């Protein structure tokens, strides 16, 4: 197992090591709490790889994935994670739900609560929506992405990938490049990686850079070639096609010219790790030869995603399951 | 003839200043104040040394909420045109102007453009004859400068103030916060603070050119105050207002997605809040209003971007404003200019002072009484206040409209 970046000075055990009911964001987590989740995830990485004897510790628990915004990859990842742990997984898609009939989010939350879900996984297009639901339900809530706000499990899986590949997060120079303004992945990653003492740079055209981003303890760049200097990790963000029709960026080819991770750019940092939360716009923010190259950790990120989500669901349901020291 | 003598009062008048004495009211009209002889047939009201002042004139409310206005010491309100239906028809304007009487006088602000769409001039003169005391752009900004210019020209002919909302529509479209660290951390759509100054600059230039009377209902940023300060020195007929929220809170209050702090214009950063206090102190700001806009859970218990902007402010207006006196930003008499005399002047109504001949719209208040603002304890239609839990001082004890006590 990898050594954690942060450790509390005294040993904390049981529920005290992660005293949160929900995982609505990285905001509010202490560095050692983040490390604890990563340590827990390491265990599941090995278990998943070796096809170890099934561990159905969530057997009999109901996990509801309530996705108010379309998703394929994250939903699948949470579903697999729940099933590996033996939970009964139910998916609720907004397209099929009464949300379209005007039901408010609170009513939906109370409905899900009344059905006695044991863990809720929620994605919503509005920032803060997941916290709103978490305040209203009795079971643990996991944020699978809310608006532009947070996507904590993505940040955890990225941190885990970096820690496994580079040995540590602390001191790593991580460049996050792309649509930072509209990206919950960027926000959660900034919070998690800076908490673990990485040197985080963000890079975007000024039209896609959030104001006062340096107050989150990152260094902003508008020139990708400068930003990438000395990088240990290059994390590319997906740029939505609708942002590249002249609204924020003149065109996708101009975006590729200034911010695309091409083989030529990557050649300047031959030891850097290449990451992307997916789905990728190949040939726009990242070239295929880079995405599929030896420096890429993109498929590993997907693998870490399942492990991290297993860890989060296990940890958050320990109290309900009466695990010793957690109840 | 009915006579009321308010004795042993601490009289607060925006024009005469603060004094101790008696106020005489005859047939609902103020007749004398100071050291006056109390006639034998007068009903005596012993004020116990407490504060007796003109009842508040609340310039710009979005709902008629009698209980909240009574609790806030407010006897007259200017009703924003953003009702359903919009106040652009004489029938609706006339009804609004009459439904409050006699306890509460409602001065409708009729829509400056038809349906508040910002395109065609509304029937301002007909609405005025039906009781409208000003015309307004409502919650929105008129994007088309030529329309705004014609609104100002036409309103000037009627000697009618134009009450404008100052936020550049393009920059503010879809935004629910002010650009800055808080909005960035929360991931909320935000507009730069200069959206306000841009709008103010245009409207000031148009007001200067047309000679119209312009009242900017809420001004909240340093850059906009600078523009207004300079315009006033040039003699532009401009006044501006603010609500206590922008004087007491900065955008940090929205942390944790607190939708009760979702306001329009949005809360600003601390530097702008300090600029607002300075603008109250130096006289740039003319009016403090509640912006009373009660919203229940159905429009507030939602994700921040989906929630409605606005706060229930009527009951807390006086207590929060008295904080400015306690903090020595302004004196009591100047505070009552902001809360009563100036808004009355913008509307062109005779109210807001204790001068002889004024209607006896009076509030008796205990300026020091401590209480705690609570969303559950407000009498307003909804308790959406961003000041939940805040300890304040200043309670309204009694309220009179035209010499008649409002129970």
Automatic annotation (TrEMBL), chain A:
Binding positions for L-aspartate per the UniProt entry: 101, 184, 238
Positions of the Aspartate/ornithine carbamoyltransferase Asp/Orn-binding domain: 171-315
Catalytic reaction equation(s): carbamoyl phosphate + L-aspartate = N-carbamoyl-L-aspartate + phosphate + H(+)
Listed Gene3D superfamilies: Aspartate/ornithine carbamoyltransferase
Entry's Gene Ontology BP terms: 'de novo' pyrimidine nucleobase biosynthetic process; 'de novo' UMP biosynthetic process; amino acid metabolic process
UniProtKB keywords: Pyrimidine biosynthesis, Transferase
GO cellular component terms listed in the entry, alphabetical order: cytosol
PROSITE patterns reported for this sequence: CARBAMOYLTRANSFERASE
Pathway annotation from the record: Pyrimidine metabolism; UMP biosynthesis via de novo pathway; (S)-dihydroorotate from bicarbonate: step 2/3
InterPro entries referenced in this protein's UniProt entry, alphabetically: Asp/Orn_carbamoyltranf_P-bd, Asp/Orn_carbamoylTrfase, Asp/Orn_carbamoylTrfase_sf, Asp_carbamoyltransf, Asp_carbamoyltransf_Asp/Orn-bd
Top class in the EC scheme: transferase
Positions contributing to carbamoyl phosphate binding: 73-74, 123, 151, 154, 278-279
EC number: 2.1.3.2
Pfam families: OTCace, OTCace_N
GO molecular function ontology, one term from the record: aspartate carbamoyltransferase activity
Residue span(s) of domain Aspartate/ornithine carbamoyltransferase carbamoyl-P binding: 21-163
Subunit structure: Heterododecamer (2C3:3R2) of six catalytic PyrB chains organized as two trimers (C3), and six regulatory PyrI chains organized as three dimers (R2).
Function noted in UniProt: Reversibly catalyzes the transfer of the carbamoyl group from carbamoyl phosphate (CP) to the N(epsilon) atom of ornithine (ORN) to produce L-citrulline. Catalyzes the condensation of carbamoyl phosphate and aspartate to form carbamoyl aspartate and inorganic phosphate, the committed step in the de novo pyrimidine nucleotide biosynthesis pathway.
Homology family: Belongs to the aspartate/ornithine carbamoyltransferase superfamily. ATCase family.
Stated name of the protein: Aspartate carbamoyltransferase
Source organism of this protein record: Sphingomonas gellani
Lineage, uppermost ranks: Bacteria, Pseudomonadati, Pseudomonadota, Alphaproteobacteria, Sphingomonadales
The encoding gene: pyrB
UniProtKB/TrEMBL annotation, chain B:
Transmembrane intervals: none
Pfam families: DHOase (PF12890)
Record keywords, A-Z: Pyrimidine biosynthesis
Limits of the Dihydroorotase catalytic domain: 68-221
InterPro entries for the chain: DHOase, DHOase/Allantoinase_Hydrolase, DHOase_cat, Metal-dep_hydrolase_composite, Metal_Hydrolase
Biological process (GO), any one: purine nucleobase catabolic process
Cellular compartments per GO CC: cytoplasm
Glycosyltransferase recorded as keyword: no
Molecular function terms, GO-annotated: allantoinase activity; dihydroorotase activity; metal ion binding
PANTHER family given in the database record: ALLANTOINASE
Protein name, entry field: Dihydroorotase
Native source species: Sphingomonas gellani
